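Example 389.
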Amino acid sequence: MQVNRNFSNLATSYLFTEVARKQREYSAAHPEAEIIRLSIGDVTRPLVPAVIDAMTRAVAEMGKAETFRGYGDEQGYGFLREAIKKYYAGKGVALTLEEIFISDGAKSDVGNILNIFSTDNIVAVPDPVYPVYVDTNIMDGRKVMLLDANAENGFLPMPGEEHADIIYICSPNNPTGAVYNKEQLTAWVDYALAHDAVILFDAAYEAFINDAALPTSIYQIPGAEKCAIELCSLSKTAGFTGTRCGYTIVPKALVKDDASLNAMWLRRQTTKFNGVPYIVQRGAEAVFTPEGMAECKENIAHYRENAKVMGAAFDKLGLRYCGGVHSPYIWLHCPDGMTSWEYFDVLLSEYHIVGTPGSGFGKNGEGYIRLTAFNTAENTKKAVERLTK
Ligand code: MLT
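Predicted structure in complex with D-malate:
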C-alpha cells in the first residue's frame, strides 16, 4: 500500500495547533501566569438570545415523535437556505435555493470544495493568508503559485500575466484585515473570466465590513456568477465557532470544462456529507431574523471597539499595524526587527499574551504578528495595559 506522500510537503503541524501547543507548554511551566489569548479568532461572546431561543425550540421538537427529524437534505433545510437567499437579496444579489449549500463551517468546505477540481490545476494563493488554502492544496499535490501581499500593495495582490485555474480571495483578509474594493474585485473577476478560472471567495469576515461602498459578496461584481464560488461562515458573524454552521454558494451559471460545478458539488455533498444538525440550522436561521441580526451586530460592535482600543495603544507606542477596521484582526509589525516567532515568544513570556505569528500565514507574514479582537473588553484593556507599561 501507499500513503499520500503529499503530506510530507506540509509543515509538521497546523499553525493554530502549534500556537496552542506552545501556549499549553508555557502554562504548564508557569501555572501562575494569567494568559490572554489573542491568537486564534475564537469569539468570546455567547450565542445571542435569538439563536438560543430557536435552538431551544428545536431541541424540544427533536424530543417529540410528531416533530422529530432524522436525516435532512445534505445541502441544508429549505428554511435556512431561504433565510440566506433573503440575506443576499438585501445585498442586491439574486440567488436560487439550489445555489446555496449549508455547511458545518467555511474551513471544512474550503478543503472539501477541492474534490471537484483536478489536481492538475494551478492555484493562486495570496501570501500571507489563512493557511488552510495552501495546506489543502499541498495535500492534494496541486501546484501553488503565491501572490505577494505586502505593505507596498496594501496586502491586496492584483492579477498579473501568469495563468491560474483557481484563485483564492479572502476579503476582508485573514490575517491582514485588508479589504478589496469594487474596482479591485472587478479586476479579479475579469481575470478569472479571461483565464477560464474559478475564484474561491472566502467571505467569512464580511459582517465586519463597515463601509457600504465595499463589497461584502463577490456576486456584487457583475460576471462573478460565471467564475466564483463563495464560502461563508457564521463563526465570526454570530459566534458559531463551536456550534459549526456556514454556507457555500455555487451558482448554476458556473460551468467549467463542460461541467456544472453546482451539479458536481451537489453530487459530492449528497455522497460525502450528511448535513448540519437540525438544531444548529434552526439556530442559524435565527441569525438572519431582524432580532438575530441586531443582536449579532451588537457583538460585532463590541469586537470592533476592542480593535480600536488595541489600535489606539499601538499608535501611542509608535508601532506599525493595519487591519482592525473592517476586520477583527490587527496585523502588527513586530518591533525591533524581531521575527514573528521571536516576538511571539516575547509576548508570551514577558506579557503573557498569545498572538499568531505572521510567518505562519506565509513568507510575507514574517516580521508580523496577528492579534485578534475576539475577546472581552476587560481582557483587551488588560493586554493593552501590559503592553504600554
Ligand atoms: C483564525 O484564527 O484564523 C480562524 O479563526 C481560524 C479558523 O477560522 O479556522
